[in-house]
Amino acid sequence: MVSVLERQVIDFLGYQWAPILTNFLHIIVVILGLFGTIQFRPRYVTGYAAWLVAWMTWNVFIICFYLEVGDLSRDSDLVLTFNLSMHRSWWMENGPGCRVTPITPPPFWAPEDHRYISIAGCLMDFQFIEVAHSSLQILLA
User: What angle do CA 38, 44, 48 make, to 5 degrees?
Assistant: First the structure.
């Protein structure tokens, strides 16, 4: 549960709406699963087991998305943000050792509400951090 809450906060910081909704649903189902286990409600436990299959499938999709398996591209705004924003993973700018340098003046094509930056010196690329988070969720499930 702590791992999912941490992931929820990171996804909120990156404005990634699909993972936010999925994490929220997972938190609700975990609470119901714990309730079903404590109260011995077989339907809740069965529902929780079915959700874990869907949760593991979601995390496999996230791993494939960030590793760009097949036609998936992590530069797509449609998949994780529902094309509502241009935000990416929070780890892209805030990963271990990353130095963010604003580029001024921004290019003419850069949206006014977004800053144009250069990122260098990261000890670990953000996609591998996201893959590690999803792998942890699969192991915990």
Answer: 100
3-state secondary structure of 100: strand
Q: H-helix or E-strand containing 43? A: helix 42-66
Structure letter (DSSP) for residue 39: T
Q: Which of 87, 82, 119 is nearest to 14 (CA)?
A: 87
Cα 36 to Cα 30: distance, rounded to the nearest angstrom: 10
Q: What is the pLDDT of residues 34-64, one digit of tens each?
A: 999 999 889 999 999 999 999 999 999 999 9
SS3 113: coil
Instruction: Give 56-113 pLDDT, tens digit per residue.
Output: 999 999 999 888 888 877 766 666 766 666 667 788 878 888 888 877 776 666 666 5
SS3 content of the chain, % helix, strand, coil (to 5): 60, 5, 35
Packed helices 2-13 and 17-38: angle between N→C axes, nearest 10 degrees: 160
